[in-house]
Amino acid sequence: MAWLVTGGAGYIGSHVVRAFIEQGIDVVVIDDLSSGHRAFVDEGVPFINGSILDADLLREIFEDHAISGVVHVAGYKYAGVSVTRPLHTYEQNVTGTQVLLGAMSDAGVDRVVFSSSAAVYGTPDTDLVTESTPKSPESPYGESKLIGEWLLRDQGVAAGLAHTSLRYFNVVGSGYPDLFDTSPHNLFPLVFDALLDGRVPRINGDDYDTPDGTCVRDYIHVSDLALSHVAAAHRLDAGEPVEPAYNLGSGDGASVGQIMTAMAEGTGIPFEPEIAPRRPGDPARIVASGELAARDLDWRMRHTLDEMVRSAWAARRGA
């Protein structure tokens, strides 16, 4: 039996795939390569180039492979851009999830680990987010992830789907020299691109009520994230109880200023970041508690911020 990883050729999905393989679990990958890379999937791993919107293709995958569960990582992940492309975002993230769950139901596959997002919380009125923090997404992306969780919940009630959703903020670092973040919107690639182009990275605001005046956020290593996806799959395979959702958070976070210092040290390129005005709506501090995930999914921060930077830079430089 194998687990199907949707979006398994992307930055996060490819790390999930390798974490499964390293624990002796067979995987099958589907990815439309809209943001993923075929080279990120090892030779020997069954790979299907296609979309989760293609119900016939999904049906073929479930017929051709003995699939016991699905890790659903595929999706349109750009929160800011989703505001100008809401219909595309909903099609990819909501309709895609609905089509996938329908194909799973038809094939009798009843286990899914869903890659959700801390974007479901919007701008919470607490500086330590827990799973019970009110959900108030502020973008079509965040809304689409929350609807995805609802779809899993309702399918659980209707058809006995065993499921859990993993929510997280900023995923960084690299677990392998050939896997790296290629997003044009994420902080680490933006800083690396600026440094490689001879530009000075920028901080939006340094007058927040935080220790160094810059915003504090969760930054978690992609390999740690991947391991918790596998742990969730193990629990579902074993029929062990899981929570509907888990936050994968650091509990204390790091400031943008700390990130910039670590970037200068980790890349060996000294710089003083440019200070730009605040961005509207940026809260001073948003950090998630990972206590529930630590209890059930072996979640922990195995990497320091310096290790996150060095691993990401090494993979980026080796690309």
Automatic annotation (TrEMBL):
GO terms of molecular function: UDP-glucose 4-epimerase activity
EC number: 5.1.3.2
Catalytic activity from the UniProt record: UDP-alpha-D-glucose = UDP-alpha-D-galactose
Pathway as given in its UniProt record: Carbohydrate metabolism; galactose metabolism
Keywords: Carbohydrate metabolism, Isomerase, NAD
Pfam families: Epimerase
InterPro entries: Epimerase_deHydtase (IPR001509), NAD(P)-bd_dom_sf (IPR036291), UDP_G4E (IPR005886)
Enzyme class: isomerase
Cofactor: NAD(+)
Domain NAD-dependent epimerase/dehydratase positions: 3-249
Gene Ontology biological process terms, A to Z: galactose catabolic process via UDP-galactose, Leloir pathway
Annotated family: Belongs to the NAD(P)-dependent epimerase/dehydratase family.
Protein name: UDP-glucose 4-epimerase
Organism: Agreia pratensis
